[in-house]
Records
---
Amino acid sequence: MREAAESECRSWRSIADLLGRSKDAPVALLGAPLSERSLTPGRCDLAPKAIRDVLRRFSVYDLETEHGIDDLAVFDAGDVDLKAVSPADAFAPVRDAAAKLAGQHGLTVILGGNNAVTRPGVHALGPLERTGLITLDAHFDLRDTDCGLLNGNPVKALIEDGLPGRNIVQIGLAPFANTARMHETAKAHGICVRTMGDCREIGVLGLVDAALETLWERCEVIYVDFDIDVVDRAQCPGAPGARPGGMAAHDFFAAARRLAAHPRVKAVDLTEFDPGIDVADITALTAGRWLCEVLAGYAARG
C-alpha cells in the first residue's frame, strides 16, 4: 500500500497547478475578456475565468502518449482590464500586454474574449510583413470596417493594417456562414482558403502541416487564432457562432497540439466562447482540453 504522503487523494496534480507567477516560465497566459461591439452579443468576457476554473479537472498526464507535462511552468499574467471597452480602445492594451509577454516567453496564450482580440495579438509579434496568421474558424472575419471594429472583421482590419494576404491561412470555413463578397476578398488578397469540406477530404492535420510549410517560407513568426465556433455545434453549445457540420472536437485538439509544437508559433488565442450559453460545461471543458493540448504541443518542442 502507498504511504499516505504519496496518496493520489492528496497529491493529484492538475493543469491548474502549472499556473503561477514565475516570469521565468516558458509559457505565458493572458486573459483578454473583450465582449463589446460583437455581432453575436453575449458574455465572452466571462470566458477567461471559466477556462481557468475548469483546469483543475484536467490532469497533467497524457495517457495516449504516456508523457506528462507536470514540469511545464506557465506564467499567469492575469487579465487585461477591458470592462466596457470597445475593440478600438482595447487594441493598445491587449497589444502591449501580449507584446511584453511574447518578448519574455516562448509561447503566449491569449484567452478571449471575442475575436476582435486577434488583431492586437497579431500586432504584438512585430512587423506584419514577417508575421503569419493561421485561423481555425468557421468564418472569414472579413466584414467591412466602415462601421467600426467588430468580432467579425479582425482579419479585414489586419489586411488594412498591412498584413499581406499571402501570410494568412484560414482553415475550417463553413458553408452558409459566409458571403460571396468575403470569399472574393479572400481570393483577391491571396489568402489560402480551406473549407470544412477540405478538412473532411484532406484531414485537419494535413491542412495544418501544409499551412505551416507555406508560412515557414515567408514568415519569421506565426500567430494562430482558434475561434472555438469552428467546432461542431453539438460539441460546442457555448459558441454562439458554431453551426452543425463543424469540426470534430478531437480534430480541433489535434490541430492545437500540432500547431503549438511548431517553433515559429509564438502566440495563440482562443476566442468566441460565451459561458453564459454553455450547457453542462461542455464548451468550458472543450476550451480547457484545448489548453492542455497547446501545452502538450509546446512541451514537445523539447
Note: The radius of gyration is 18 Å.
---
Amino acid sequence: MTKWKLAVVQDDFNGGANLRLMESYIIDCMQKHPETKLILFPEAAAAGYIFSEEHVRSKAEPADGPSCRFLSGLAKRFDLYIGYGLIEKKDDKLFNSLNLISPEGELLATYQKMHLTPLEKHLFSAGNRLVTVKTKLGTFGLMICWDMAFPELARLLEKQGTDVILAPSAWESPYEGAYDRMASARAMDNTVYLATCNFTGGDGDVQFFGKSAIYGPDGAVISEKLTGESSIVPAEIDIKKRQELKESFYSMRSDERTDLYTIQWRGERYGS
C-alpha cells in the first residue's frame, strides 16, 4: 500500500480518564476520516505528562499492561495501527515509552525515549535501543519529543529503512519555533515523513501549545493545527512520492560522502 491516511491527535491528556478520551478520538476520527490507517497520540498520553515522582510511579505499567490491552481492542475494532505514549515499568525501572499496536491488536514494538530532558532525568531511565517496525504501510521509526533535537538518531532510523518517523511529544512553551524547525529538519534531512503530536493545556510554569503536524519528505508541512485547540490532524502519506523525491532534488542520502565522516555512535562509524 503506497498511499494511506495518518492522523495525529492533540489534547490535554493531564485531565484524567485518558484512555476514554483516546477512545473518543478514535471513534470521532473513524467517523470523520474512515480511511485512516494509523492514529498517533502524544507522549505519555495514557498516563498524563506531569513532573511528579508520585504521579509517574502511580501511572507506570508494563508495556503490555492495561492501556495496551484497552487500545488493542480498539485497534482490532477499527482495523487501525495505534501509537501512543505511556509510562513503562520494566525490571524495576521507569521509562518514557511509545507503543505501536497493529490492526490485529498485537503490540508490535515499544520504544524507550533515549534523550531525556533535565526535567525528566530524575524520573526515568534512558532507553538505549533504536526501534523500527516494518508493516504493510511501510517502515516506521520511533522517537519521542526531545529525540527530534538529535539529527543522528533520525539518520540511523532512516538507515534502517524508515519511511515515516512517529514522534509523539509533550513540547512546552515558549519553544514553539524549535518544535516546528526540528521536526521539519529531521524529515528533510532524511527524506522521510514525520508525524508529531503535542499536548495542549498545562499546569503552573509548564504550558503546552499544540501545533501538531505531519511533514513531508521535503520538510514541508502537509497538515497542521496552528493553535492549541484540541484537534485531530489528518494527512495522506504517499510512499511512492518519497522515493520520487529521493531520486530528484532530494538526493542527499545517495550523494553524501560517508567515506569522509569520522563521527562515532555506539562504537560504529556513522554513515557506514
Note: The first helix runs from residue 18 to 32.
---
Amino acid sequence: MSRRAATLTVASVLVLVLAVIGSFMRVPYVALMPGPTSNTLGTNDKGQPLIRIDGRTIYPATGNLNFTTVTYRGGPGGRIDLFTALRGWLDGDTAIVPEETIFPKDETPKEVDQENTRAMQDSQQNAEAAALHELGIPVTTRVVVEGVQKGRPADGVLKPGDEITALDGAEVTSVSQVTGAMAKAKIGDTATLTYKRDGKEQKAALKTVADPTGKRAVVGIVLSDQYKFPFKIDISIGDIGGPSAGLMFSLAIYDKLTPGPLTQGKFIAGTGTITPEGEVGPIGGIQQKMIAARKAGATVFLTPKDNCADALSARPDGLRLVRADTLHGSIQAINALNTGNGAVPACAK
C-alpha cells in the first residue's frame, strides 16, 4: 500500500471513530430553534378563537398580530449529542446554549415546565389587565391562595384556589394588604381568614406560628393577586409556556375591543412580556423568534427595547424592527405605520 493510500485509510478510520464517539457523546447544551407562530386574532388548532371575549361588544379584526415561540432540543432528560451541537453552532437558525440557561441546576425539568406554565398564565392575566388599563376600563384585584405549606396551620384547611376576602373582619383585595396586616400580628395570635371556595364563603381561625426566621407570624399560605375583570376573556393557545407573548395578547384584546382593525391588514409579529400597567419587558430567543416570524410572512416585528441590540445583529431580510417600550407606544407605532403620519420608533444600536 502506498503512503498516500495508508494516510487516507488512517484518516478515514479516525473520522469514523470520531463520528461514532460524537453520536454517543452527550453534551450539557440545549439547541434553541424557531418555534410555531400563531395569530392572536385567529383561531387555535381546534378552530376556536384564540382570544374569546364574552359580555362585551367586540369588533372584527383583520390582519395578523402573531406571537412567536422557541422550541428546544436537549436538557437533563435527553441531552443532545456532540454532532447535533456542532451542527447547531454552524446553523444560523439555531442557538446552542448551556443547559443551565434553560434548566437551572437546582430545578428539575418538571419544575421548569411548571414554572413556564405559571408564567404563561400570569402573562395572559397581565395582558388582559394591560389592555383594559389602556382602554380605561376599571379592573379590580382579588387575593387567591396559590399554595399551602405542609405542617403549617393552614395545611388541611385552606387549599389552592381559595379566595381570601377578609382578614380579622377587614376586607382585603390585594396581597400587600394581607402581608401588611400579618406583619403586625404576634406569634401565637389567631388570624381569622374569610375565604370563598366554589362560591361559598367560609371562615378559618388559624393560630399563627413563627416563620423560618423566628421573627414573623405566619399561617403557611402563599398568596397571589389575581384580577377581577368586568367581562370574560379566554385565551386558548394549548401547551405553550413562558411569559413572552404578553404584548401580542394585549394588542389583540385591544384590537377586538375597539372599532376598526388595528393592523389594517398588515402581518405584524412580535414578542415581549407585559405588566398590568402596559410596560414591555425583554425576552429570550429573539433571533429564533424573528426567523419564525419572517418565515410565517411577517414584515413588521415588535421588539422590546432591551432586545434591540441582539435583534439588529440577526434581523432577517424583509423584516422591519419596531421598538416596543409600552403597549400604548406600540399601538401608536402601528397607527403611524398605517397612516404614514408620526414617528415609528426603531431599534437602534
Note: The two ends are 60 Å apart (CA to CA).
